[in-house]
Design brief:
Chain lengths: 423, 262
């Protein structure tokens, strides 16, 4: 990634610290990813993106900015990309998934904050991630308490717009979310200087729906008895979907899906027979958080599905297309986004239904419900999740972890024991 | 006669057992684990050699946190599965709630119809483990088992902190205040029992036979205090500290292609 130094300098990044990150990432990626056997060829694209993670996409974004486009950084799958794209803006995900950024976050946040928030704040304040430097505006949302208060700190350093996400899903809440989306659209219009028209929004809705369909196709392939792709590879695809251009993302995912479908027809599997099929549910796994997937897939299990924001919550449900007015489009967006089931909502029984449904669809042997340390909403909901699964006769293991490697061996023992328990 | 070897490398103690093909317990060893699990595995090998058990011929299963450090093991299996198997063997029962208070972690395993149905393990923190007891015993200049035994004669004092580091300073200040040793010992055991009981409450079980395995199984007062807290009788067998290793040796019986005469 060395030929990007000029760009990083111009972004006013802390080059010395950033170098340290650039040095560890390839080793980690090699250990976790390149050690896998018989990977789909289509993964070559994502391997390449990771090898240039702080170079290639950032330089595209900077090019786009030079041509007058604006970049919006987001932190949650409730924020509608369509609105930004309709105004010729660009969206990039900004969730931090590495321990590398956590100490930076702890300089200003209490230690007992979830690592995702600490890493995100640390990446911004320590100036060690180009994406956090490039974004013209951050878009926050009122989900968990930690994020809400973190926006106030980030807002001192970067322009922020915050969307007031309801915490319930009654009709009036959906109406309110439509209204919030409309207000967000006005902000986006102002920042980009472009008007959002019915046509442009319709096209953006179509683009994102296409991306969702492509991601869903890859997931569909994971329902096969002989798994054509590892959970780790699928997770990587998912993580990078938050950063990439949506059209290219769709194209690459479709290419991958073609290959996977062929593999299924040919009976090619990346796991040996009898490998236990695991559904992972819970808090998001932002790049480069591959910890749990790696442990599972080196302990006799295969991750077949993620009920997470870096998983099914990102692509399930589409937005209605070809609506005649902006009002109708905002409403359609609100309806689709409010179908997401995040633990920040109450009640959130839809998530339990999702998990039980996914267990059937992906024919899972067991569920590992994971929550990031100090994420109280998912932690508390874990009780209900485990109870429902046990009642349905599906074995479940609850795990709490963070981004450090300190608990890796303990986790491995638990995961191995769980997989032994599955018989 | 064929023989089967189970090795349980725990954080403080390494347990090795040999079973014959009729599942008789032929031999047991107890070694301190020391700094390096690899060296410990070597020491175990020497003991086995000396007793004429050939690891080339006998199937070997390793378990415990150092299980991957046994190069000559034919298979590694987690301590959860092994403790369950070992406890079933010792208790001669297929339905059990196994409480294993280990050096570094405490496990609660629910066994139904001979299979592990559910389990919980303590998280990173060492509250409710043998380590906790050891640290507290050290700060009172006692041996862990003596502390346990002394606890029976104490009462009236409690440690409020679950964290080992904070709890240790509580103990130090109790000592400094001149609190009676047996009362402090009581507080230490009470803290472990409460923590273990809260872990047990996370597992949904029918009322079933509860047994204690691991290093503290010889401590009668620990069993009594746990039984009082959980409202049940805690049973334990003489070789319960070998439960994990016995389970491993039982699992070694499933290994094919090895295990001729020794
Ligand atoms: S877990 Fe909830 S708050 Fe976090 S990204 Fe997902 S939807 Fe948003
Ligand atoms: S993981 Fe939980 S605490 Fe962390 S940002 Fe998401 S909802 Fe908030």
């Amino acid at each position: 990634m060395s030929n990007y130094v000029e760009m990083w300098k111009n972004l006013n990044m802390d080059l010395e610290t950033h170098d340290a990150l650039c040095q560890v990432l390839p080793t980690a990626f090699g250990d976790v990813y390149l050690s896998q056997e018989n990977r789909p060829e289509g993964m070559g694209f994502w391997d390449f993106v990771v090898s240039e993670i702080h170079g290639i996409r950032p330089s595209e974004l900077i090019e786009a900015q030079k041509n007058g486009q604006k970049v919006f950084g987001t932190f949650c799958v409730y924020v509608p990309d369509e609105v930004v794209i309709a105004a010729n803006g660009i969206v990039t995900g900004l969730c931090g998934g590495s321990q590398f950024w956590v100490p930076g976050g702890e300089k200003v946040l209490p230690k007992g904050t979830c690592p995702l928030i600490k890493a995100s704040v640390g990446a911004r304040l320590d100036r060690t991630c180009p994406f956090f430097r490039i974004a013209d505006m951050y878009v926050g949302e009122t989900t968990c308490d930690g994020k809400k208060k973190a926006w106030e700190i980030l807002g001192q350093d970067v322009p922020m717009h915050i969307m007031d996400l309801p915490q319930m899903k009654r009709d009036k809440d959906i109406l309110k979310w439509a209204d919030e989306i409309k207000e967000f659209a006005a902000v986006v219009e102002k920042v980009t200087g472009n008007e959002i028209t019915v046509e442009a929004l319709n096209e953006a809705i179509h683009t994102i729906n296409e991306k969702r369909r492509a991601l869903a196709r890859v997931y569909e392939a994971r329902k096969a008895a002989k798994l054509p792709i590892s959970g780790k590879d699928a997770l990587l695809m998912m993580q990078i979907a938050f950063f990439d251009d949506p059209k290219r993302c769709a194209q690459m995912c479709n290419n991958l899906a073609d290959e996977l479908e062929k593999r299924i027809a040919d009976g090619v599997s990346v796991f040996k027979e009898g490998t236990k099929r695991i559904l992972v549910s819970g808090t998001p796994m932002a790049i480069p958080n591959w910890k749990l997937h790696h442990i599972i897939e080196t302990s006799g299990g295969a991750v077949v599905c993620e009920e997470m924001c870096t998983g099914t919550r990102y692509f399930e449900h589409e937005v209605a297309e070809d609506l005649p007015t902006l009002e109708a489009q905002y409403m359609a967006l609100a309806q689709r986004y409010m179908k997401n089931n995040c633990a920040c909502f109450t009640p959130n029984s839809g998530r339990i239904d999702d998990i039980l449904r996914l267990c059937k669809e992906y024919n899972v042997d067991g569920v590992i419900d994971v929550n990031l340390k100090f994420c109280s909403t998912y932690d508390i909901e874990g009780y209900t999740v485990e109870k429902a699964l046990k009642e349905a006769g599906i074995p479940v293991l609850g795990i709490e972890t963070d981004y450090t490697d300190a608990d890796a061996e303990q986790l491995r023992t638990r995961v191995e024991a769980f997989i032994e328990m599955l018989g | 006669m064929r023989h089967f070897i189970g090795i349980d490398i725990g954080s403080t103690c390494t347990k090795t057992v040999v079973l014959d093909e009729e599942k008789n317990l032929v031999k047991t060893w107890l070694l301190p684990t020391g700094w390096s699990s690899i060296d410990t595995a070597e020491a175990v090998k020497k003991e086995l050699d000396a007793a004429n058990f050939n690891i080339e011929k006998c199937p070997v299963v390793a378990t415990g946190y150092g299980r991957i450090a046994v190069p000559y093991a034919d298979k590694t299996i987690t301590e959860i599965t092994c403790h369950a198997k070992g406890a079933m063997y010792l208790q001669n029962s297929d339905n059990l709630l196994v409480i294993d208070i280990g050096g570094q972690d405490t496990k609660i395993i629910c066994v139904e119809n001979g299979l592990v149905k559910d389990f919980v393990m303590n998280d990173k923190c060492s509250a409710g483990t043998g380590r906790f007891l050891e640290v507290m015993a050290n700060s009172m200049a006692m041996r862990p088992n003596d502390l346990c035994a002394l606890a029976e004669f104490g009462g009236g004092v409690h440690i409020s902190s679950m964290c080992t580091v904070f709890a240790e300073s509580e103990v130090v200040s109790l000592v400094g205040r001149g609190e009676k040793k047996e009362n402090i010992a009581f507080a230490v055991v009470d803290s472990i029992v409460k923590k273990v009981a809260s872990q047990v409450s996370r597992i949904e079980t029918e009322k079933m036979c509860t047994c204690l395995t691991g290093g503290l199984c010889d401590c009668d007062y620990m069993k009594k205090a746990l039984g009082n807290e959980l409202h049940c009788e805690i049973s334990s067998q003489p070789n319960a500290r070998f439960a994990g290793a016995i389970g491993a040796a039982l699992m070694a019986m499933n290994i094919k292609g090895k295990g001729e005469e020794r």
